[in-house]
Write a structure and sequence with these properties.
8 helices; Arc Repressor Mutant, subunit A; mainly alpha; Rna Polymerase Sigma Factor, Chain: A; DNA-binding; transcription regulation; Sigma-70 family RNA polymerase sigma factor; RNA_pol_sigma70_r2; 74% helix; transcription
Length: 186
């Protein structure tokens, strides 16, 4: 079946078409939720962010001008709201499990190793400064270009690249230290 573009759905939603609004929301809801989960670290905060972004979207959909892709515009809103949440709240490094989606069920030992590795990466992401964490999220998980990220964050492309590579270096070094420590414990 023919898949309507975001712009077409926006036009219909602005005319009061509830089905178009629901399609638009359902198209981006999952990626917004997982964006919040990875960036904020808890299901509750991810849900709060999702609801907040959808409320802003509902009130401001008519302000979308089409200068960039709708997804880029929407994640610009999510970026702003997430950074605001990070500034206002203090997070604990609790042991709350992150949602995982498995394409196939690997052997139990392999699954446990994968979970442990994912957990280490998530902990390292949370230890990064919010600006670096945000850039990694947008680049790896949302697959925005450096220029799109720069536009969303209102900084230069070089600043985005600097934050990106600094974050990767920090994560690499810490993951290497963690690996050495784990090897020494066996």
């Amino acid at each position: 079946m023919f898949k309507r573009s975001d712009e077409n759905l926006i036009a219909k939603a602005l005319q009061g078409d509830q089905h178009a609004w629901q399609q638009l929301v359902s198209r981006h809801q999952s990626s917004l939720y997982y964006f919040g989960l990875r960036l904020l670290g808890s299901k509750e905060d991810a849900n709060d962010l999702l609801q907040d972004v959808l409320m802003v979207l509902c009130r401001n959909l008519g302000q979308y001008r089409g200068d960039s892709s709708f997804k880029s515009w929407l994640f610009g809103i999510a970026n702003y709201r997430a950074m605001d949440m990070l500034r206002r709240r203090k997070y604990s490094d609790g042991d709350e499990a992150l949602a995982e989606v498995a394409d196939e069920t690997p052997a139990l030992a392999e699954q446990l190793v994968n979970q442990q590795q994912q957990r280490q990466v998530q902990l390292q992401l949370r230890s990064l400064p919010p600006e670096q964490r945000l850039v990694l999220e947008l680049k790896f998980y949302q697959q925005f270009t450096f220029d799109e990220i720069a536009s969303q964050l209102a900084v230069s492309s070089n600043t985005v690249k600097s934050r990106f590579y600094a974050a990767l270096d920090k994560m690499r070094l810490q993951l290497e230290v963690d690996h050495v420590e784990q090897s020494a414990n066996f």
